[in-house]
Amino acid sequence: MLYHVFMDVKIPRDLPAEERADILAREKAYSQDLQRQGTWRHIWRVAGQYANVSILDVRDNAELHQILSALPLFPFMQITVTPLLRHPSAIRGDDS
Amino acid sequence: MLYHVFMDVKIPRDLPAEERADILAREKAYSQDLQRQGTWRHIWRVAGQYANVSILDVRDNAELHQILSALPLFPFMQITVTPLLRHPSAIRGDDS
Amino acid sequence: MLYHVFMDVKIPRDLPAEERADILAREKAYSQDLQRQGTWRHIWRVAGQYANVSILDVRDNAELHQILSALPLFPFMQITVTPLLRHPSAIRGDDS
Amino acid sequence: MLYHVFMDVKIPRDLPAEERADILAREKAYSQDLQRQGTWRHIWRVAGQYANVSILDVRDNAELHQILSALPLFPFMQITVTPLLRHPSAIRGDDS
Amino acid sequence: MLYHVFMDVKIPRDLPAEERADILAREKAYSQDLQRQGTWRHIWRVAGQYANVSILDVRDNAELHQILSALPLFPFMQITVTPLLRHPSAIRGDDS
Amino acid sequence: MLYHVFMDVKIPRDLPAEERADILAREKAYSQDLQRQGTWRHIWRVAGQYANVSILDVRDNAELHQILSALPLFPFMQITVTPLLRHPSAIRGDDS
Amino acid sequence: MLYHVFMDVKIPRDLPAEERADILAREKAYSQDLQRQGTWRHIWRVAGQYANVSILDVRDNAELHQILSALPLFPFMQITVTPLLRHPSAIRGDDS
Amino acid sequence: MLYHVFMDVKIPRDLPAEERADILAREKAYSQDLQRQGTWRHIWRVAGQYANVSILDVRDNAELHQILSALPLFPFMQITVTPLLRHPSAIRGDDS
Amino acid sequence: MLYHVFMDVKIPRDLPAEERADILAREKAYSQDLQRQGTWRHIWRVAGQYANVSILDVRDNAELHQILSALPLFPFMQITVTPLLRHPSAIRGDDS
Amino acid sequence: MLYHVFMDVKIPRDLPAEERADILAREKAYSQDLQRQGTWRHIWRVAGQYANVSILDVRDNAELHQILSALPLFPFMQITVTPLLRHPSAIRGDDS
């Protein structure tokens, strides 16, 4: 089941550089791991913003929340979730 | 080059049923033709709304506008365009 | 799986009275049928507004959309969907 | 009498970890106690957000405010209250 | 129990003059009747707008909705309800 | 002359407890003094919020501002002023 | 006593040309009459919009409303009122 | 050439009292000097807010910005500029 | 003197096709004439919208309004004006 | 390919003066370098605000983001990107 997730990142200026680097490294590993498993279907950067648009493929709302709330950047993100479904005009097998 | 396009549809109540059916049939054919060509990469329905989230892969802003403004439903849509690019954490070959 | 659905109704003034009455009767029957099946878990009127807050229990996003878009009042509603999940402090068996 | 309450939590980063843990433990106990009494009818987590949707069953506006303003997390919450009532299409005995 | 109610009126231009006059007369009588009973505690015009701020004293959310939805102008109003309670600094006996 | 005043209070967390207690005590005394004089006609708490709705009866805009800007909590409030007048349907002598 | 009034005009397309011309002529005469009396202190057009910013000098909220609600264009305007007073840095005799 | 300028002031709490007093004194002198020159045509306080509405008469956009950005309070203000022109109904010689 | 002008076009569906074509032809001629004179410095289409961003170079606010309000599409546009000036980092001779 | 970019700058008060001066000098050099290359086509200051409107001419979304995210002021800016294209009424060779 697919969800559209918009993630807007605001890292506070006073976060120590090392802590920041560590969080970003863990965020990247976490995201790539989920991409490899097929759960995090797509991730795109929004031009001009420290933000991304993602498509997640999960079992249900609970799994979606479990994944998002475990993001290393979660405390510094504003997240907007939009539930998606197959569009009647879609022709790609994986658009649902 | 990828763009995130949100299309919100409001068909006026007084549009004759036949004209409406004709527009919807042409919209579907137009969208599926572009999907087959790989230009309209993804299309998803938004749960509970007469709206969709789409990803288009076009040469430039001009081609994007030419495609969107030629949509049979264009006069009845509120469209929001967000330019995307490859995310540094993306691993899929086709996420850019 | 639970969803919070806010439905705001605006019936156009020029809808013939008979058509209006027919839609409202079908809307009520449709809602009560789904309530009896346990799909439409809760429905409450919002004080001072022609609007309701509902909790739906469905299999997935697709079933949610299928149910909402089949509402007789769907063309006259502004619908907002919020995906829910069990709260870690919940104690009721049916709050998920 | 039922009220729809949306609670959006923003705990400041500089709150000492111990104070934070203590507040969260007291919040959970407080909420579960009121759930057991039947006052806090429902509580759901909103997917992707540190927020919840709750239904409270209280005597009047004053009792509602007394309960909400005594929440251990109250200073860190943005709360929105919506008064509810029985919907004319409701069939469940406890939807009012 | 007190509620703050903001009523914003937009009467459509094509409402026949007679129907309009009739609705306004019934609205006035209805409001004054409830004022005499003490239910509609206060009503003030907002300067420069076809709108009013009112304070209603009712038994519960259900009675509030029953009163508001029976307003002759209800179909032409945007209504916002805010539940009130006695302020800890209030000294007037009737501010609750 | 009546004004509707909405006061939304946000006291910063780092305000010393003593200073906070002192400000709140002075705010209460100031408000009650003006209530006794009949200037601060009504004050109600908004359910679930650290906010109040008030009705002030003053000579003119200047007196209103003099009173509001002298509130001990003024630096910590977001204030919205709405000028009111007698509603043509009002029957109470003191609704103007 | 001064008020800042923003008037945004939207005349419906289907208003007969003659009625429109008549309303505009009466609006102009009405405004100029009040300007001559010193009540309508200032009126400026907003660049690029069918809107104006005005300063009115009236006895009280009631007189302000009486004047605004009698504007021939009142049914076609969105009006926003802001109560003003003398600024402590003002030096002009007539800025209050 | 006239501009409508809305200035909303938010002085941070941690600004040292002396610095604050100095800024306010310089702001007042600066404003009064421009008022005497006829550049700052009007200034009014907004009731209940630390904000003002001003009318400036300058040569062009560049002079307007030079004046506003040199305000001692500029770093603590949210400024909104609206270009004005003579209204066709204006009768005062100085309303343009 | 430069102004940034955003023009959002909404032509009503019931405008006769001939009238529409005539307005569009006159709009184009009007715009191109002003472009040739150097007054309408730039005009760009916004991707996915029936809207444009323009830069106009005029003598003052009054000339700007005279030009905009004479646009054949003016009654069907929502226009937003932003006054511009030379940026301190600009190097192009014509960016002011 | 052209993009409209609005940049709103908010430099935190506690940024050391030297760091601030250094960032501003690098920002200016960076912008002027891109202007000389023809990439940063236009830059204008918005009157009364610490903000600018710019037109960038880049190969694609990715280059746009690479340029914007490398701005020395990027961490202190709110950036809004709007993709542009040649307007059908444009006559200037470089308006696309």
From TrEMBL, chains A, B, C, D, E, F, G, H, I, J:
Sorted UniProt keywords: Aromatic hydrocarbons catabolism, Isomerase
Catalytic reaction annotation: (S)-muconolactone = (4,5-dihydro-5-oxofuran-2-yl)-acetate
GO molecular function: muconolactone delta-isomerase activity
Pathway(s) it belongs to: Aromatic compound metabolism; beta-ketoadipate pathway; 5-oxo-4,5-dihydro-2-furylacetate from catechol: step 3/3
EC number(s) on file: 5.3.3.4
EC top class named in words: isomerase
Location of the Muconolactone isomerase domain: 1-89
Keyword Isomerase: yes
Record family assignment: Belongs to the muconolactone Delta-isomerase family.
Complex and partners: Homodecamer.
Protein's recorded name: Muconolactone Delta-isomerase
Organism of derivation: Paracoccus spongiarum
